[in-house]
Amino acid sequence: MATSTPLARGLMSAGVAKGDRVGIWALNCAQWVLVQYASAKIGAILVNVNPSYREHELRFELVQSGLKLLVSMTGHKSTDYRAMVEAVRSECPDLTDVVYIGDPGWDDLLAGGSTLAADAVAVRMATLSPDNPINIQYTSGTTGYPKGATLSHHNILNNGFFVTETIGFSNEDRLCIPVPFYHCFGMVMGNLGATSHGAAIIIPAPSFDPRATLQAVQDEKCTALYGVPTMFIAEQNLADFAGYDLSTLRTGIMAGSPCPVEVMKRCISEMNMTQVAIAYGMTEMSPVSMQTRPDDDLQRRTATVGQVHPHLEVKIVDPLTGLTVPRGTPGEFCTRGYSVMLGYWNDPVKTDEAIDQARWMHTGDLAQCAMTATSILRVGQGSALCSGGRRISDDRDGCGRWRCGPNRPIAWACRADPDAHVAGPDFGTSALPGRRSMLWP
Known about the structure:
2 domains; globular; Rossmann fold
């Protein structure tokens, strides 16, 4: 965190005020993390730009967010980021400065705050509120344009903390993060989850590489590893998989799609991840609302998404009536609490469609509560397609999940289509000491 202070001073010197949007367009790197923390310190709103964006997508995000300053890589493989920025820059009226990582401009930005008062960052921080917006992440959809899920300090810092608190993190842990930072899995569950416990962040490669990931775990003696199921499958399928020393691992998070039983078995028996957890959520929920516990058995880790997170409520409703419905049949998963986003950036109509007047977030995901198990919720059936740490599909809803309709089979995390009558389970409430939660008896 202290390392990010010179960058925070540089951003202030560059004219970035509280509430201004600062973008980061890069693959995983140390500079990404520095920009994340530096922007937070001065009350700027970090805008995550997907590294795979093409010109039209970049243009939309820069304009819609009103981005003032962009920190970018110069390029990756055959993609020329600099050329794309220059191609759209004249159409982005709010964009005043672009800084490229590795160029002299990056060093100039770091040094730019040297003339500010010594307490300039502290003075700015004193004006900030936990409920201020701090991050915008754009979701893809079928509405013709992405929506900018706007998250606060309170949203993402608490969620990151509870994700790693649930898997027993401490300052002795070392977390390997091969999932992308531009998504909540990387920057919230990863960066903030580690930092809030004083744990180390290990970046194995700019983008996912199974060999680099296992090599980093071995060399850096990582205790935790993140990934979507396809990442773990790629690691386990390496010809030299057995040659890596993974004995320091104990836990991690698998999310993004359901985990096959055999993959989970190998994570536990061959990767030493005896306390690996499954998490469910979405960007609009900062992102996690459900997570398995370290002592859950194999069935719960592969057939369910665990228990509700601390300080959150969940319910399953009939999407046509909005009423909570009996246990054992599918319905729309809704959640309420500190993690629900502030709204979609400059889009009150879509915000009102997603969040009702009682502040319940309507996810559009189909879920059902098990008939007999305690604190278990199942989200859909089957699996979704993942790429690069994100779920993808050629038939997606506004949050990148598979949709279902009258003639479509239900897939994991399905869209609750108004033309398809569904219902969901009833469950009671129970309070844990010091927690505001909704659980099943």
